[in-house]
């Protein structure tokens, strides 16, 4: 049967400088929409998974355009709300060679940050759902967004739904009077699959470790609901060339993926979301080793696509895993 996934999180409008221009040079900006959780839903929708995204937009033409973008991408938007507040923005200057990329966020007082968490009936939204996904960005945005996330996870846990969370620690986002250590542990206690690294464990869970395997064991000792932990490993040679691999801890087994060298990167934004979507899809449909390889290959292909979303097929990802049709002209 077709799997059903629900994601929760803010969607931003992205404004990118032309080609590789700097902010000081650019007179025009390319518009995209994206959000780390919505990007996951878009990928899954491309792969014949029923994906629903929960968010809100301002009730004007730009908000409706953002909603239509999700709908055109195959995502169920029936539970999206329109309310007061502004459209969150971020500005991207794409780096090249040894010059780093830059992002400037302008997202405070957004529509999503002002959502009333009581307007959602999570038991109804999550009925017959197989998987729920959240990230640490949502509870960092505002107190109401943190409560919204907690309500969703509480319902998902009660309904026996598999829950994944990308910890995604963003220091600069936590501005409403709460620290990650006051909010994140309770959310992690209701989560089964975690993506995060040692910095995330330390800042959000107060867990220190010398390596990822040790960190995973400590997380599982403290949070018995967590059965799977994963993270990507990126070696940055330049803005244009990275190496990417990933690790997975599951059933007391440590798996390491193959390493890909990515040259002439087009757009690395959304690479982590492509990995997360690939991991969700892989764990629902494949053995754990194959799930990890699928997730990494998904992330690699994203680096060759403009915009936040990973617009590739399952077949393309599996071909990369097998080493088939790499860089060929297909016609």
Could you give a short description of this structure?
The protein is an alpha/beta fold and 331 residues long.
Keywords:
single chain; alpha/beta; nine-stranded mixed beta sheet; four-stranded mixed beta sheet
Number of strands: 15
By secondary-structure content and strand pairing, the structural class works out as alpha/beta
Order of helices and strands: EEEHEEHEEEHEHHEHEHHEEEEHHH
Tell me the distance between the termini.
Answer: 32 Å
Strand content: 15-25%
Main beta-sheet annotation: 9 strands, mixed
**What portion of residues is helical?**
25-40%
Low-confidence stretches: none
SS element count, helices:
11
Q: Mean of the pLDDT scores?
A: 94
Description of the molecule:
The longest helix is centred in the middle third of the chain and has 16 residues, at 143-158. Helices cover 35% and strands 23% of the residues. The protein has helices at 36-46, 61-72, 122-125, 137-141, 143-158, 180-188, 198-205, 212-222, 271-285, 288-302, 314-322; strands spanning 4-8, 12-17, 29-34, 50-54, 56-58, 81-83, 89-93, 102-106, 131-135, 162-166, 193-195, 228-236, 242-250, 253-256, 260-262. Helix 1 (36-46) packs across helix 9 (271-285). The chain is globular, with a radius of gyration of 19 Å. The protein has 331 residues and is α/β, with parallel strands linked by helices.
């Amino acid at each position: 049967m077709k799997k059903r996934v629900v994601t929760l999180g803010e969607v931003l409008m992205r404004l990118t400088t032309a080609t590789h221009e700097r902010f000081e040079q650019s007179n025009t900006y390319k518009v995209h929409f994206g959000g780390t959780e919505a990007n996951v839903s878009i990928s899954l929708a491309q792969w014949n998974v029923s994906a629903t995204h929960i968010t809100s937009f301002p009730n004007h033409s730009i908000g409706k355009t953002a909603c239509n973008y999700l709908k055109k991408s195959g995502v169920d938007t029936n539970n999206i709300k329109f309310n007061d507040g502004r459209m969150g923005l971020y500005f991207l200057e794409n780096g090249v060679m040894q010059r780093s990329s830059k992002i400037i966020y302008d997202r405070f007082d957004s529509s999503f940050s002002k959502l009333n968490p009581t307007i959602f009936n999570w038991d109804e939204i999550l009925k017959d759902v197989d998987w729920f996904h959240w990230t640490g960005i949502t509870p960092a945005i505002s107190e109401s967004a943190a409560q919204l996330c907690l309500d969703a996870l509480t319902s998902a846990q009660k309904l026996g739904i598999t829950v994944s969370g990308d910890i995604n620690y963003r220091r600069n986002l936590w501005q409403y009077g709460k620290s990650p250590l006051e909010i994140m542990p309770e959310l992690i206690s209701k989560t089964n699959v975690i993506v995060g690294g040692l910095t995330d464990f330390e800042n959000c869970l107060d867990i220190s470790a010398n390596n990822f395997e040790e960190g995973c064991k400590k997380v599982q000792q403290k949070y018995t609901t967590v059965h799977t932990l994963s993270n990507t490993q990126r070696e940055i040679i330049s803005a244009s060339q990275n190496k990417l691999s990933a690790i997975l801890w599951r059933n007391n087994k440590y798996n390491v993926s193959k390493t890909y060298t990515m040259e002439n990167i087009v757009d690395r934004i959304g690479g982590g979301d492509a990995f997360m979507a690939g991991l969700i899809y892989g764990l629902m449909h494949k053995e754990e080793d194959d799930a990890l390889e699928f997730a990494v290959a998904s992330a690699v292909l994203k680096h060759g696509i403009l915009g936040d979303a990973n617009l590739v097929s399952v077949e393309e990802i599996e071909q990369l895993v097998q080493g088939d049709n790499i860089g060929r002209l297909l016609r």
